[in-house]
Automatic annotation (TrEMBL):
InterPro entries tied to this protein: Homeodomain-like_sf, HTH_TetR, HTH_transcr_repressor_FabR
Organism of derivation: Hydrocarboniphaga daqingensis
Coiled-coil ranges from the UniProt annotation: none
Bias (Basic and acidic residues) ranges: 7-22
Protein's name according to its UniProt entry: Transcriptional regulator, TetR family
Residues in the DNA-binding region annotation: 47-66
Stretch list, region Disordered: 1-25
Length: 226
């Protein structure tokens, strides 16, 4: 399964002449912010001068692309969830890994994606409950939209395509919350601690199994007619 394009991948494409210089600078600002956030900083603590210095441009050039730091943060939120949606689309197109069952495959793909896009996930984890209120709202909206995408996929299963929308939404909320919890635990685990990560994965798989076991027993409020 091909990995989603990272900001660095996009910069490589731009440098090969496929994008404009302005887009290169815009993505350079995003990458600079992510690098700075990798030093345990919150986005709200970053200054415009820090980001432009890290990106190698003068501060006045920032305003050709963003009016405020919050606008830059909005772009980072959108890009972070774009990579996640690309992962889900790839899973839907290519199928889950052949080894293991569906739940194990889902968790495996998610953990791989977290490692491949660690800075994005760290940014989302930190800003989800702190920093700018506009970023918190955007993250909530993106998580909700991700749940709606998942609901569309789940509706293709025979046991679920007769459920009422509220029941499907509750199921996807449980699954999305579990995936968010997995991401946060992976990010907080000690670096290079394979045993700690294996335990996180084991618990996550059990949680997903518990959710799946409840599906056949659930009685939707108003099932669709056959």
């Amino acid at each position: 399964m091909p990995a989603p394009d990272s900001i660095t991948d996009k910069l490589d494409q731009i440098q090969s002449g496929r994008e404009s210089r302005g887009q290169r600078t815009r993505l350079g600002l995003q990458e600079a912010a992510l690098r700075l956030l990798g030093h345990d900083k919150s986005f709200s603590s970053l200054s415009l001068r820090e980001v432009t210095r890290e990106a190698g441009i003068v501060p006045t050039a920032f305003y050709r692309h963003y009016q405020t730091m919050e606008e830059l943060g909005q772009d980072l939120v959108a890009d972070s969830f774009r990579t996640l949606r690309q992962m889900i689309r790839s899973v839907r197109t290519d199928g889950l890994p052949s080894s293991g069952n569906m739940i194990q495959g889902t968790v495996q793909v998610l953990v791989q994606h977290i490692h491949a896009n660690r800075l994005h996930f760290q940014f989302i984890a930190r800003e989800r409950f702190g920093g700018y209120s506009s970023l918190r709202a955007s993250i909530r909206d993106e998580i909700h939209a991700f749940g709606q995408d998942l609901a569309t996929d789940l509706a293709q299963f025979p046991i679920l395509n007769r459920w009422d929308p509220e029941s499907v939404q509750m199921l996807t909320t449980l699954m999305v919350n579990t995936m968010v919890s997995i991401a946060e635990q992976i990010l907080e685990a000690p670096a290079n601690d394979a045993a700690a990560e294996a335990e996180i994965v084991r618990r996550a798989e059990r949680q997903m199994v518990f959710i799946s076991l409840a599906v056949p027993a659930w009685k939707p409020k108003a099932a669709k007619p056959a």
